[in-house]
């Protein structure tokens, strides 16, 4: 009699989503797309174009050059385009805009206090483990610490919060904490949007006291930065290559 088959099984511990790196994209790709023409003069798919047969057949008359299957059975295959310059991911353009708007272009720091940044990072860290209650606890801990040591440096604040985060993580039974994922996601989104609204709109940089630059976005592809007059003057005095320095105070980043 044959022994019963043992079916191996695993329980999901966690799922995360991310973006492929450039190297991973190249490994997944079956074809580098280098030809801007996707059809030739008689209407057939051009080699190395977007309709290249290596990516899958465009209609029922063709077969896939990668898996040799027909139009119905080929799953389709990834290709890739090598970009000659670094470009920002358009999916993150809104976040890029918020980050530049909330940054000091004089000292290149975020225009909020270090305490706020370290608090948010610590809260996001405990939320990765589903510890909703610790979000408020960390805020209380930070406020108490700042009352006792008003002149604490950024490093001291970071160390204090890290010490409490480690204690919280060690004292928790982590196995059951990720059960209420929806609440954790809502709390994370709320913390991040509060951070943008409440802490990234200050008129002066708390670090170097420079006035804030005006940042405008156009068509989700371009950012126009108008420097405050003091920085413009700094550019003029330093003899830097400031664009159209007699009339305009704009510097433009083309995103794509
Ligand atoms: Zn195929
Ligand atoms: Zn600054």
UniProtKB/TrEMBL annotation:
Query: What GO MF terms are annotated?
Result: DNA binding; DNA-directed RNA polymerase activity
- Give residue ranges for domain RNA polymerase Rpb1: 12-209
Keywords, A to Z, come to:
DNA-directed RNA polymerase, Nucleotidyltransferase, Transcription, Transferase
Q: Which Pfam families match?
A: RNA_pol_Rpb1_1 (PF04997)
* Cellular-component GO terms for this entry: RNA polymerase I complex
Q: Which domain of life is it from?
A: Eukaryota
**InterPro entries reported for this sequence:** DNA-dir_RpoC_beta_prime, RNA_pol_Rpb1_1, RNA_pol_Rpb1_clamp_domain
* EC number, UniProt record: 2.7.7.6
One Gene Ontology BP term is: DNA-templated transcription
Q: Which PANTHER family match?
A: DNA-DIRECTED RNA POLYMERASE (PTHR19376), DNA-DIRECTED RNA POLYMERASE I SUBUNIT RPA1 (PTHR19376:SF11)
The similarity annotation says:
Belongs to the RNA polymerase beta' chain family.
Q: What name does UniProt use for this protein? A: DNA-directed RNA polymerase
